[in-house]
Design a protein that fits this description.
Blueprint lengths: L3 E5 L3 H13 L3 E5 L2 H11 L3 E5 L7 H8 L7 E5 L4 H10 L3 E4 L4 H16 L5 E4 L2 E4 L4 E4 L2 E2 L4 H12 L5 E2 H9 L9 H13 L8 E4 L3 E4 L3
Parallel strand pairs: 1-2, 1-3, 3-4, 4-5
Antiparallel strand pairs: 6-7, 7-8, 8-9, 10-12, 11-12
Helix pairs in contact: 2-3, 6-7, 6-8
Length: 224
């Protein structure tokens, strides 16, 4: 699965242009035109990067950024028409990772996205890593301590979700949406069964438990 990017901008033209450019680069793109929609999408869809306009019609981008930081550590790239030092400091203080001033070249935006991916995954060559887990997104292979894991397609996507969002608590609804693409039905335990089967695969050779149960909330991949 390619990196998932949420783009938030109230200008339809800007939003469409960015989404098209990212899509042509092979990223999975989500779009939102206001802060409330962006917050809901970020909580449910688990984006790997968030591109966020500062000037939004309902909640300004600074407040959206503050609320995002309550539940996600995904890198946030601010888009702004303001380029003063106080404006940049305000955004960084709210939890932004980078700034891009409008108008900007799409080539520069794409370069910033690649840099943020390198910062969070250590690579932009289609690989992910956490603890002794290594994932090659291009070949769809996953390894633990150098040993190839025999994962089903759904188990592979589930592991990708955990590694991309390591240490973050993922609810059953989030995992269901990320892996299977539809909403979680509260009476079903298929997500729990899927996590249990994935654990068996990655712990088969005596590896310590990485996917932790967070009672009342969901699961998180944590090294300790």
């Amino acid at each position: 699965m390619s990196a998932r990017i949420l783009v938030v901008d109230d200008s339809v033209g800007v939003l469409s242009s960015i989404c098209r450019a990212l899509g042509l680069e092979g990223y999975e793109v989500l779009a939102a035109e206001d802060g409330e929609t962006a917050l809901r999408a970020a909580e449910l869809e688990l984006p790997d990067i968030i591109i966020l306009d500062v000037m939004l019609p309902d909640i300004d981008g600074l407040e959206v950024c503050r609320r995002l930081r309550l539940f996600t550590s995904a890198p946030i790239l601010f888009l702004t028409a303001r380029d003063t030092v106080p404006d940049r400091v305000a955004g960084l203080d709210k939890g932004a990772d980078d700034y891009l001033v409008k108008p900007f070249a799409l080539a520069e935006l794409l370069a910033r996205v690649r840099a943020l991916l390198r910062r969070t995954t250590g690579s932009d060559d289609g690989s992910l890593a956490c603890a002794d887990i290594r994932i090659n997104l291009s070949t769809r292979e996953a390894f633990r301590d150098g040993v190839l894991l025999n994962l089903s397609p759904q188990q592979f996507e589930l592991l990708v979700a955990f590694v991309r969002h390591h240490r973050q608590v993922l609810t059953r609804e989030q995992l269901c949406q990320y892996v299977w693409g539809y909403s979680f039905e509260g009476e079903s335990n298929f997500v729990d069964v899927a996590v249990m089967e994935l654990r068996k695969k990655i712990e088969a050779n005596g590896g310590k438990r990485l996917i932790q149960t967070v009672r009342g909330f969901g699961y998180a991949l944590r090294e300790s």
